[in-house]
């Protein structure tokens, strides 16, 4: 029975990944280590409370005592590190915590795994550390071209710089100690359980409240959208079939401008929920500092080597996503209580 240490599993992608894995395999154990920051929410996992293959541990990946204790207590086979400060706008306001969690936290996890898995020379067979990274480490594209795994790292925001730094530490553990690792770099995810600081759930939530829809700059920045379940499938393949030391880009050629995303959401909610939701709610606001213009992934390596392909077309994924938020209004209310209003006011007024 393989044991997975999933970090940041109470966040958006981590919780989707835990659901995906426990649904697919009934012979694995998942330990979820999460600090429960503003972005972590146990509501995302409440259906697993009775599942004996799932254990939640509240704690910080920067706390080496907690992390080492988990390696003592469990025979961990895979570490999948999702834990991070993940929002670019927050990183512009407050970079320090991004360095702490994203860089230092990664090194603490690497060290703990190395101590548990290595006798000083060789690593036990069947163990692997997977770093969940981002295409933002490559920087920004012009009108043409795609990010490949060998595209030079050129991050711009404090967030992407912290993720690139973490990637370099993971690479250093492979190059120096031959630690078994993989790094995955995906494009923008969307789907259930995403905190409404990110574009898609923020726009859905604001449409439902008939509040202004903030669009940065000219609205023509491009992101390459990946349905979160397709991402989870890719991570599972990398864990099980990825060649040691390799980086895999994950994305499905779903490039859209931000304004297209916003208008798509408005149109669906206008037709299905409330005809008062119209494009009049759009408000062009000051651009993000250092705003990357375009991201676009070349996924040919993961397609050819591991046989992964994205199953969800953007037009279907966005409908499933909006429907999920419509049916889970309680979830939205719960995550937007507390400090969310304060954050929103500071960010958007
Ligand atoms: P998220 O912000 O929704 O969740 C992050 C989780 O990490 C939360 O549960 C939070 O409580 C936890 N966490 C934060 N600091 C911690 C710490 N010090 N110790 C333990 N837990 C801590 O993030 P997400 O969108 O699910 O992203 C997951 C990973 O995927 C991140 O590493 C992110 O960089 C990467 N990623 C995300 C996207 C995206 O579109 N969301 C795209 C590319 C890469
Ligand atoms: P976001 O969801 O924050 O992801 P990332 O910055 O990591 O790509 O933003 C996606 C795009 O949407 C990005 O170009 C910024 C833009 N955006 C807005 O126009 N308005 C908003 O309120 C937000 C949160 C983002």
List keywords for this structure.
binds thymidine-5'-diphosphate, dTDP_Gluc_deHydtase, alpha/beta, lyase, seven-stranded parallel beta sheet, 42% helix, 349 residues
Walkthrough of the structure:
- Pfam families: GDP_Man_Dehyd.
- This protein is an alpha/beta fold and 349 residues long.
- It has a domain at 2-195 and 226-253 and 293-312: Rossmann fold.
- 42% of the residues lie in helices and 16% in strands.
- It contains 12 helices and 13 strands.
- The chain has a 7-stranded parallel beta sheet with strand order 3-2-1-4-5-6-11, with helices on both faces. Strands 7-10 form a two-stranded parallel ribbon.
- Strand 1 (2-7), helix 1 and strand 2 (28-34) form a beta-alpha-beta unit.
- Thymidine-5'-diphosphate (TYD) binds next to helix 6 and strand 8.
Note the topology.
Elements: E1 2-7, H1 12-24, E2 28-34, E3 54-58, H2 64-73, E4 78-81, H3 88-93, H4 96-117, E5 128-134, H5 158-177, E6 181-186, E7 189-190, H6 199-208, E8 213-216, E9 222-224, E10 226-227, H7 228-241, E11 247-250, E12 255-257, H8 258-272, E13 282-285, H9 300-306, H10 314-327, H11 329-336, H12 340-348
Parallel strand pairs: 1-2, 1-4, 2-3, 4-5, 5-6, 6-11, 7-10, 8-13
Antiparallel strand pairs: 9-12
Helix pairs in contact: 1-7, 2-4, 4-5, 6-8
Bound molecules: nicotinamide-adenine-dinucleotide and thymidine-5'-diphosphate.
Thymidine-5'-diphosphate (TYD) binds at residues 88, 188, 198-199, 202, 214-216, 221, 223, 258, 288.
Cofactor: NAD(+)
Organism: Clostridium fermenticellae
EC number: 4.2.1.46
């Amino acid at each position: 029975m393989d044991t997975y240490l999933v970090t940041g599993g109470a966040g958006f992608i981590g919780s989707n990944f835990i659901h995906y894995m426990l649904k697919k395999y009934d012979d694995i154990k998942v330990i979820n280590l999460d600090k429960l920051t503003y972005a972590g929410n146990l509501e995302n996992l409440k259906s697993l409370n009775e599942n004996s293959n799932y254990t939640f541990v509240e704690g910080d990946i920067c706390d080496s005592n907690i992390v080492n204790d988990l390696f003592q207590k469990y025979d961990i086979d895979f570490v999948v590190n999702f834990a991070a400060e993940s929002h670019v706008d927050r990183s512009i306001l407050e970079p320090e915590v991004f360095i702490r969690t994203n860089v230092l936290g990664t090194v603490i996890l690497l060290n703990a795994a190395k101590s548990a898995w290595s006798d000083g020379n060789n690593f036990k067979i069947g163990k692997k550390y997977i770093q969940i990274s981002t295409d933002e480490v490559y920087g920004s594209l012009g009108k043409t071209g795609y990010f490949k795994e060998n595209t030079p790292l050129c991050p711009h925001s404090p967030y992407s710089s912290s993720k690139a730094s973490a990637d370099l530490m993971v690479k250093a553990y492979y190059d120096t100690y031959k630690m078994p690792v993989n790094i995955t770099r995906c494009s923008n995810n969307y789907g259930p359980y995403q905190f409404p600081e990110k574009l898609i759930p923020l726009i859905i939530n604001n449409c439902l409240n008939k509040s202004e829809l903030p669009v940065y700059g000219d609205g023509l920045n491009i992101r390459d959208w990946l349905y979160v379940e397709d991402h989870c499938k890719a991570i599972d393949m990398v864990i099980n079939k990825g060649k040691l030391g390799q980086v895999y880009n994950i994305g499905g050629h779903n490039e859209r401008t931000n304004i297209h995303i916003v208008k798509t959401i408005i149109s669906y909610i206008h037709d299905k929920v409330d005809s008062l939701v119209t494009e009049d709610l759009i408000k062009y606001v000051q651009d993000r500092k250092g705003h990357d213009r375009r991201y676009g992934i070349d996924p040919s390596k993961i397609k050819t080597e591991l046989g992964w392909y994205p199953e969800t077309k953007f037009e279907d994924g966005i409908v499933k996503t909006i429907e999920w938020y419509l049916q889970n209004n309680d979830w939205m209310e719960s995550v937007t209580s507390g400090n969310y209003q304060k954050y929103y006011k500071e960010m958007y007024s």
